[in-house]
Amino acid sequence: MASVCMAAFILYFSWVFWRGEPMVVAPPRTFDSVTVDWLCESGHSFQATGQTEPRSCPQCSKRSYVVTLYSCDIHGRMEIMLGYDTEHEELGVTRWRIPSRGWVESEQELRCPRCRGVLRRAPRDPLAPIGRKIRPRSDD
Predict the structure, then answer these.
(1) How far apart are CA 48 and CA 24, in angstroms?
(2) Per-residue pLDDT tens over the stretch 61-72
(3) DSSP assignment of 112-125, as one string?
(4) 3-state helix, strand, coil in the chain (%, to 5)
(5) Hey, which residues does 80 pair with through a beta bridge?
(6) N or C terminus of the chain: which is more exposed, having fewer CB within 10 Å?
(7) Where is 11: in which H helix or E strand?
(8) How far apart are CA 61 and CA 46, in angstroms?
(9) How far apart, in whole angstroms, are the C-alpha atoms of residue 63 and residue 41?
(10) Segment 116-140, tens digit of pLDDT
(11) Contacts (Cβ under 8 Å, ≥6 apart) of 56
């Protein structure tokens, strides 16, 4: 009896080892299921789920756009508004805008409005308060 149990034990764990860990596939996250930062044309910031069209600001009802941080080597971090379009069923940024400036096509390099240096994507500080405005340093 012990040899049968031992054989069954060895066969079972051999099968488990041979089969490996089951593959768990996480469902893909969609843009409309993620909370992102928004900035309206009047300067109000808030968080809401993503959407490709401009959203109305809850404070003043003006158009709001998804906003992200970019950084200039000289002038520091600044917020950049993003314009999205769906091409071939894929979501992509097609235009960028520095608040109070005009839209720029996303194929062009985004440049600092003060020194014309190339802006680079800046990571958001996880300890920064939600809705805090980050302005470029004023050390011109």
Answers:
(1) 29
(2) 998 888 888 888
(3) -TTT-PBPEE-PPP
(4) 15, 35, 50
(5) 68
(6) N
(7) helix 2-19
(8) 12
(9) 6
(10) 888 888 876 666 655 555 554 444 4
(11) 62, 63, 64
Domain boundaries, the chain: 31-121
CA dist., res. 86 & res. 133, Å (int)? 29
> If you ran DSSP here, which 8-state letter would residue 34 be given?
S
The encoded tokens of residue 73 equal 């080597």
For 95-106, write each residue's pLDDT tens digit: 888 777 788 787
Q: In angstroms, rounded to a whole number, what is the distance separating the alpha carbons of residues 81 and 28? A: 25
**Which amino acid, one-letter code, is at 98?**
I
pTM: 0.62
Which whole-number Å values give the CA distances from 135 to 77, 98, 115, in the listed order?
A: 7, 11, 15
Residue with tokens 């409309």: 32
d(CA 36, CA 46): 9
